[in-house]
Amino acid sequence: MTNDPIDFDDQSVVHHWVHSSFDNQGTVVPAEVRTKLHLKGLLPPGVDSFENQEARALEQLRVKKTDLDKYIFLAWLKNTNLQLFYRLLLDNLEEITPIIYTPTVGAACLQYSHILPFLAPPGQPDGLFISINDLDNLDEIFTNYKASLDEPALTPQITVITDGSRILGLGDLGVNGMGIPVGKLQLYVAAAGLDPRRTLPICLDFGTNTDKYLKDDLYLGLRQTRPADEQFYAAVDKVMTALTRHFPHIFIQFEDFSSEHAFELLHKYRDNYFCFNDDIQGTGAVILSGFINAIKQAGIEATDHRILFHGAGSAGVGVAKQLMEYFVIEHGLTEEEAKKKFWLSDSKGLITLDRGDKLAQHKVFFARNDNHGHQSKNLLDTIDYVKPTALIGLCAQSGVFDKAVLNRMAALNQKPIVFPLSNPSANAECTFEDAMVHTDNRVIFASGTAFPAYTIPGTNETRVPGQGNNMYIFPGLGLGATLAKPRVITDTMIYAAARALANSLNEEEKSHSFLYPRLTRIREVSVDVAAALCRQALDDNVALDKVVQSLPNSTALREHAKVNMWSPVRTTDSIIGSKI
Ligand SMILES: O=C([O-])CC(=O)C(=O)O
Ligand SMILES: [Mg+2]
User: Fold this and answer.
1) Where in this chain does the record put each Malic enzyme NAD-binding domain (predicted)?
2) Please, which of 174, 192, 302, 344 could form a disulfide with 221 given CB 3.0 to 4.6 Å?
3) Which residue numbers are catalytic?
């Protein structure tokens, strides 16, 4: 179906209506529209109000016994009545985000091959699966996808692409990683109003090295191990070429690739493709933003901070580089001076140049050369040696910030900054409750997955933990990027997005010492992030969009972002909207 006016005399309109998850809105369709669309008899005669339709969906959601059941229900809803799904999500963001996204999306990915057929009507694609054995058939694959679209004119403008090799902190999940691009793109729609018809989840099936899946009879991916690097990079190259040939100027988000590949792909493509890496740049920006606000609360000079990272994968190094820029841009340090504020550690201890093992390439940048032969083998030793003001966890090791570690941070600092950022919550380095209990409630805290609020025993004081998840950045960044159409995404644009997020706290949020705004304000925050990104794209001379080029100031850019956000249908008038 196209945006052309509907030919109401053509009975085939019924077929489209019944099968289109975007157009078909089920029981709210008013009687006169049902008559026009030849839907009489295909629905029970009662016409729902929008409120009742949503209340029924919420009721069904809440009776589901497990979070995975809720995930399956919501996926089905999205794939059969998309407008209702997004209404429900937007009206219940705090309840539903943890189901369609971290942490439950992690549980869903672990089970993806077991639940996939129950997420959508048979044959309806939830995204594109590209097998490494199909590299000669990429044109056929993209053509098939275009033919499957409800509205072929509305080609994808944004894709999230993974090869499933490092899904959250869960490891190599192979084709089961598809849940992540699907979840991320749902947040692009909910949090920043990207048009859901123009989002494309892609899972590259390059095999898996996880034995459990290779032996699982129900696994739906290729039963082969992953290729060597040379073949991997050549395969991704082919996909990038075909993808951008079929969908020119599509915005490409790399997601959950194993660390080495993540850095190399970003390095390889960032100067000639319209792309960014969410785990390196998105997580980096969101933590930078929380860190800017944490520094304001910690009460010591920014340049006196000493930052210890536990975990040195794509997210760890990405975040450290982003924080480094803060010291350079805001405090005038040289790169070398800024770098010295950071210590990184991994499973083998503090990362130093003379540790005696061969460091992975991405770890070399922050490896210390001023340790005078000192090596620390475990986290507690490292803390004693570094005396950090901030401890940031991105190692996916549950509980590694234990009582002893947290006690030590509290002994060293009046207001220790502790960010256990690994996802999902089961992989977090500590819980909010642990962090409070073992620091005399003095901790400045943010985690990757939301933890429950904590009431200090014997008081009425309840603290809400910050959620330093890249969901505060990537949707607004994607909105800004699809509007400004920059040639490339520059570091300064990512920095501008982070600063906009830090500045987006309102007075009420500041009064509670929040590091991040309330999730319920995510659309407002995304407008701030999008406008800042457009502004910086103009300043960097990379914005190609003529409208954005013509907008005189940030207020006009904000307005432009706001009016371009897609929202689900909430009135009967817009049920067939522009198509009448
Ligand atoms: O998906 C999330 O919650 C954040 C993220 O990118 C990751 O942990 O890889
Ligand atoms: Mg990720």
Assistant:
1) 280-538
2) 174
3) 101, 184
pTM given for the model? 0.94
C-alpha 107 to ligand 1 mean position (Å) = 13
Nearest-CA residue for atom 3 of ligand 1 = 102
Q: Annotation-wise, does 255 bind a ligand?
A: yes
Q: Does 378 appear as a known binding residue? A: no
The alpha-helical segments, DSSP class H, found in 247-304 are 259-269, 283-298
Burial state string for 209-231 with b = 16 or more CB within 10 A and e = fewer than 16: ebeebbebeebbbbebebeeeee
- Closest by CA position to 204, among listed 126, 127, 130: 130
- As for the ipTM of the complex, it is 0.98
Which three-class secondary structure state does DSSP give residue 447?
strand
Question: Which among 168, 277, 419, 421 is the best mutation to test ligand 1's pocket, defined by most ligand atoms within 8 Å of the CB?
Answer: 168
Phi, psi for 7 (deg, rounded to 5): -90, 100
User: Which residues fall within 8 angstroms of residue 202, CB to CB, at 6 or more apart?
Assistant: 127, 128, 129, 130, 159, 160, 161, 162, 181, 239, 243
Q: Is 387 left (phi over 0), alpha (psi -120 to 50) or beta?
A: left
Question: Measured from the CB, is residue 427 less than 6 Å from ligand 1?
Answer: no
**Alpha carbons 464 and 467: distance in angstroms, whole number:** 9
The answer, yes or no, to whether any atom of ligand 1 lies below 6 A from the CB of 469, is yes
Ligand 1 atom at minimal distance to the Cα of residue 184: 1
Pull the structure tokens for residue 243: 């993808």
Place 579 in a pLDDT band, splitting at 50, 70 and 90.
Answer: low
Could you tell me if 365 and 319 are in contact, meaning their C-beta atoms sit under 8 angstroms apart?
no
Contact 435, 406 (CB under 8 A): yes
- Length of the chain (residues): 580
Of all protein residues, the one whose alpha carbon is nearest to atom 8 of ligand 1 is 168
Q: Does the annotation place 256 within a ligand binding site?
A: yes
